[in-house]
Amino acid sequence: MRLYSVTCGAEDREIKKQESIVPKLTTAEQMNQLEAASHDFPTRLKERGMAQLKPLSLKTFQINVGKVCNQACHHCHVDASPIRTESMDRATIDKCLAVIAEVPDIEVVDITGGAPELNPHFRYLVEQSRALGKHVIDRCNLTVLEEPGQSDLGVFLARNQVEIIASLPHFAQSRTDAQRGRGVHTKSIRGLQFLNSLGYGDRLPLHLVYNPTGLFLSAPQQQLEREFKESLARRYGISFHNLYCINNMPISRFLDALLRSEKFHEFMDLLVNAFNPATIEGLMCRHQISVGYDGRLYDCDFNQMLELPAAIGHIDDFNYTAIQRREIALANHCFGCTAGAGSSCGGEIA
User: Fold this and answer.
1) What are the angstrom distances between the C-alpha of 239 and each of 62, 150, 165, 189?
2) How far apart are CA 307 and CA 251, in angstroms?
3) I need a surface site. Which of 16, 91, 207, 334 has the fewest CB within 10 A?
4) Strand ranges inside 94-205, DSSP E
């Protein structure tokens, strides 16, 4: 499948071929490449006295409702795009809701994609999760707010008090558009301004996600957050609560780019050399379960994209006790979450 950089919107969707177009790596090929790295993550844990990694809680129930997206970003670990068709159906969503209702430890329903809002059952999932008293997170790419049929999306999210975690690669237009496609920065800014007008960034929680655009780890989260806040406020009058910094993971499109540029081993050495044992307790896989669009269970969203299943393989077989006793599946991409200050869906962890 070809990869594209896409600018979003109903009137002028531009699809631009990348300079180098190659077939996407299969999950088996990705695992083979990761295993070829000179260091082994499970071995590193054993050196720290941890023969295996176990869960600590089940606070978050993360649901990936599909790979359909109005963008196709160069770094996307989901390999989402407008030409993907995988989408969670209503029956699987109802099975997820049944588990959420039965497990009181679950506090947060974290909805992701693709662009999760493009799933036809997204609003049903939000409303039912809120009716169960759960805090709901929508991982929003901002440009989806301008998609056909989504003009009332922001109002819907605000009415249901949904926390928005919005992806914005950088406050600079050139850096955002280089990663996500021409025009994405402008649409993202309009989206943030619209959300601010609804109370997001003030009484409603609005957070931004940053990931590096090169072969390096993120700068300190607190420092970058200050720069983002100052720049977005000065240039556009935008406010938000927190900035979450997430390391690029050596999987999917980013792994493909590393291999094509012959930088894979250099990047893996960077991650390995930055290994921080203080991140282990806060790893997101120890506090959540991730559900794929087809109901399969994974320890985290990254394992989901590598098709590394959790010990309990499907939502049909969900068992709380077994989930809490499971051994978390590990591979060398896990160095991405333990490098530097650590990386998770909520940013730094150490």
Assistant:
1) 26, 22, 13, 11
2) 11
3) 91
4) 108-112, 135-140, 163-167
Q: Chain centroid to CA 164: how far?
A: 13
Distance in angstroms (rounded) separating the CA atoms of residues 77 and 38: 22
Burial label, 101 (beta-carbon count in 10 A; 0-12, 13-18, 19+): middle
CB 332 within 8 A of CB 40: yes
Task: Classify burial at 204, counting beta carbons within 10 Å of its beta carbon; exposed 0-12, middle 13-18, buried 19 or more.
Answer: middle
Q: Which helix (H) or strand (E) is 18 found in, with range?
A: none
The pTM (predicted TM-score) of the whole model is: 0.90
Token representation of residue 230? 């100052």
DSSP secondary-structure letter at 89? -
SS3 320: helix
**297 within 8 A of 291, measured Cβ to Cβ:** yes
With the C-alpha atoms ordered 216, 221, 227, 228, is the resulting torsion angle positive or negative?
A: positive
Which positions ≥6 away from 132 have C-beta within 8 Å? Answer: 97, 100, 101
Euclidean distance between CA atoms 333 and 316, whole angstroms: 28
268 to 37, 96, 156, 237, 336: CA distances (angstroms): 7, 35, 42, 39, 8
Residue spans per domain, the chain: 18-338
Rounded to whole angstroms, how far apart are CA atoms 334 and 321?
25
Q: What is the CA radius of gyration of the chain?
A: 19
18-338: CATH number: 3.20.20.70
- Strands 163-167 and 309-314: what pairing? unpaired
